[in-house]
Amino acid sequence: MLFKVEMDVRVPLDYDPARFEALKAAEKARFQELQRAGTWRHIWRVVGQYSNVSIFDVESNAQLHDLLTGLPLYPFMEVKVTALCRHPSSLHDDDR
Amino acid sequence: MLFKVEMDVRVPLDYDPARFEALKAAEKARFQELQRAGTWRHIWRVVGQYSNVSIFDVESNAQLHDLLTGLPLYPFMEVKVTALCRHPSSLHDDDR
Amino acid sequence: MLFKVEMDVRVPLDYDPARFEALKAAEKARFQELQRAGTWRHIWRVVGQYSNVSIFDVESNAQLHDLLTGLPLYPFMEVKVTALCRHPSSLHDDDR
Amino acid sequence: MLFKVEMDVRVPLDYDPARFEALKAAEKARFQELQRAGTWRHIWRVVGQYSNVSIFDVESNAQLHDLLTGLPLYPFMEVKVTALCRHPSSLHDDDR
Amino acid sequence: MLFKVEMDVRVPLDYDPARFEALKAAEKARFQELQRAGTWRHIWRVVGQYSNVSIFDVESNAQLHDLLTGLPLYPFMEVKVTALCRHPSSLHDDDR
Amino acid sequence: MLFKVEMDVRVPLDYDPARFEALKAAEKARFQELQRAGTWRHIWRVVGQYSNVSIFDVESNAQLHDLLTGLPLYPFMEVKVTALCRHPSSLHDDDR
Amino acid sequence: MLFKVEMDVRVPLDYDPARFEALKAAEKARFQELQRAGTWRHIWRVVGQYSNVSIFDVESNAQLHDLLTGLPLYPFMEVKVTALCRHPSSLHDDDR
Amino acid sequence: MLFKVEMDVRVPLDYDPARFEALKAAEKARFQELQRAGTWRHIWRVVGQYSNVSIFDVESNAQLHDLLTGLPLYPFMEVKVTALCRHPSSLHDDDR
Amino acid sequence: MLFKVEMDVRVPLDYDPARFEALKAAEKARFQELQRAGTWRHIWRVVGQYSNVSIFDVESNAQLHDLLTGLPLYPFMEVKVTALCRHPSSLHDDDR
Amino acid sequence: MLFKVEMDVRVPLDYDPARFEALKAAEKARFQELQRAGTWRHIWRVVGQYSNVSIFDVESNAQLHDLLTGLPLYPFMEVKVTALCRHPSSLHDDDR
């Protein structure tokens, strides 16, 4: 099942940079693991923001919740989840 | 260049159904033409809404403006455009 | 899978009352069919509003979309969908 | 009497984790006590958020106020309360 | 139990004045009946608006819902309901 | 003259509890003084919030401003003021 | 007592122009009567809007309500009322 | 040229009181200088808020910007600027 | 003096197309007259909207108000006006 | 391609002034470099705010993202990006 997830990252000005870089590296590794698994199907940067627009393909709401709240940068994020489904006009059966 | 476009369709309760069906058919045809051309890369329905989330891949802002305002259902739409770009963590060079 | 669905009904002041009553009867019949099937698990009135708060238990996002947009009163509704999941503290395995 | 209560938990990034874990444990114990009593009838997680949607069944507004403001995590919560009542179309006399 | 109810009346510019006056007279009669019963405890005009702030004292959420949705002017109203309770600092046991 | 005043209290998580209790006691004493004087005519708790809805009966806007900004908890409050007047349908000449 | 009143006028595209001109003339006459009386102390146009910002000097909330709701263009207005008082730093005792 | 300027002052709870009093004294002195010069034509307190509504009469947008951003309390302010002009119905040529 | 003006055009679905085309032609002629005069310095389309972002260079607030409210399409517009001034870092003395 | 970019700068009250001045100097140098290159085509101050309205002329969304997120003051900014295009009524082919 498909969900649009919008993640907006807010880092306090005085947060320790080294600690944040470590979290970013962990986030990237986790993202790539999920991208390879096909769960995190798409990710795009929003121009001018520390934000992304993502498409997740999961088996259940619970799986999505666990994935999102387990992300290394989750404590810095505002997250917005929107349930999607295939569009009837699409020529692609698997436009995911 | 990539853009997220969110289209929300509002049809007045007393709008002539036959006229609206004709516009919907024209919209579908135009959508599929643009999907085949690779310009309208993705489209998803938003669950419970007469709305879609789409990803466009265009050559310029002007091209996107002309495509959107020329859609048969455009006069019924609220449209929201967000400029996107490739995410640096993505494993896919062409995640569009 | 569980979703909270909030439906807010807006009827134009000059809408034909007989026609609206017929749609309400159809809505009620459809609701009870889905309630019996266990799909529309809960429904409550919001005090002072022509609105309800509902819990749906569906197999997929697509099923929920089809159910909602097929409701007889759908053209009069503002609908808000929120994906839910079981709460880890709950004593009930099937709190749905 | 039924109320929908939405609780959104915000934890400062630098809050002492041990202290927060103790509060969470107390919150869980209090929740289960109220769940067993039938007062906190339903609870669901909101996907991707540190938030829940709950249904309370209380004897009065005052009881609800005391329960909510007495929760161990209350100082971290944004709370939204909506008065509900039984829906006339429901087949269940006690859909609570 | 106490509730603050805010009612905002919107009358279309072209609504038949005689018909509206009849509804207003019915509304006033119904209001005074409820005021005498002690159910509609307080009402105040909001300066510059066709709106009121009211305090209701009811036995249940369901009673409040039935009272509000049965008002003659209800189809013209935006209604906002807020659950209240006695304030612990008040010197009056029955500040209702 | 009547005003609805809504006060929403926000206390930082790390504010010294003893200092806050002292301010609360001062607030309560000041409130009761104004309640006895008939200036602070009504106060109700908003269910689930650290907020109240109050009705003030003052001689002028300036008097209301001085009363509110002089409250011991004022620095912690978001305050919303709405000018009210007697409702023409009310049976009570002095519904204040 | 002083109030800031912001009036925003919305005229439907198909409203009869002659009828509206008559209302505008009546509004202007009423305004000038109140301006001469010192009640409508100031009025300014908001650049680019069919709106004004006004300062009223009235004896009571009730007087302000009656003045505003009796304006010929009132049915076309969105009105926002804010209670003001003299500023302690002002050099003018009667800055009204 | 006339502008409405709304200033909302937010002081952190733990800001040094002596330092803030010094800034307030400087603000008052600067205000009175501008009031005497006729630039800061009007100022009113908003009831219940640490806010004012002011009318400025300046020679240019740039002059207004320099005046506002140079105020001693500017770093504590949310500022909202609205361009105004004389109202055609006013009987006073110089209602400023 | 410089102002950013954002114009959002809303045309009712059933508005007579020929009448609207005539207004559009008049709007274009008026725009070009003001563009040649240097008053309407810049105009850009907002992608996907029937909206523009414009920069006006006028002698006074009153001149801007008269220009905007006199536009042929003004009755269809939502207009937002923001006062601007030269930026101190700019290398161009006349970046208007 | 053209974009409107609105930047709103928020500096914490207790941020080290010398450190902020150094960042401002770096921001100014970077701005002038981009202004000379024709990329940062226009910049204006918003009256009364620590904000600017800018027009960028870039080759791609990605270039704009890199420019904005690389600005020395970026960590202090709220940024809003709007895609623009040439207006068909403009007399200037290169109104950028």
From TrEMBL, chains A, B, C, D, E, F, G, H, I, J:
Family matches, as Gene3D superfamilies: Dimeric alpha+beta barrel (3.30.70.1060)
Muconolactone isomerase domain ranges (all copies): 1-89
Protein name, per record: Muconolactone Delta-isomerase
Family per record: Belongs to the muconolactone Delta-isomerase family.
EC number(s) recorded for this UniProt protein: 5.3.3.4
Organismal lineage: Bacteria, Pseudomonadati, Pseudomonadota, Alphaproteobacteria, Sphingomonadales
Biological pathway: Aromatic compound metabolism; beta-ketoadipate pathway; 5-oxo-4,5-dihydro-2-furylacetate from catechol: step 3/3
GO MF terms, alphabetically ordered: muconolactone delta-isomerase activity
Subunit structure: Homodecamer.
Catalytic activity: (S)-muconolactone = (4,5-dihydro-5-oxofuran-2-yl)-acetate
SUPFAM superfamilies linked to this entry: Dimeric alpha+beta barrel
Domain of life where this protein originates: Bacteria
